[in-house]
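Board notes, transcribed. Complex of a protein with FE2/S2 (inorganic) cluster.
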Amino acid sequence: MDRKEFLTLFGAGAAALLYTSCVTGCQATDNPISAPANVDFTVDLSASGNAALTRDGGYLYNSGVIVARIAAGNFVAVSAACTHQGQNVQFTGNQFYCSAHGSSFSTTGARTAGPANSPLRKYNTTITGTSLRVFS
Ligand code: FES
């Protein structure tokens, strides 16, 4: 086998392998998991179980929602399930990121990178003393 034959054969094999792995491992369409509707809960920021929200970039999950602290007194809450295939997103300090296939979302829930096509649902937050209310 000469060099040209090898490259032709190898190239066709690699292309077939890439096509197969993408088709079977990474669906381009979003999953049917819907974001929680009727959300209304309160997080006690003084409770030790909620200590993640006492530092910038910290986050926690509650009722299908991820609540994150951007800065002191500035919180954001969006649906936790990635709109691609449903894995919980994480907060990285300035965006939400899904480690399953690399989708990312802004702090408003807007999709900034795929393969997810749809945004995360954003919820309202309001703080009174040490009580953080998250609601739709
Ligand atoms: S589940 Fe695929 S990018 Fe999130």
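Confidence is low (pLDDT under 50) at residues 6-24. Residues 55 and 79 are 21 Å apart (CA to CA).
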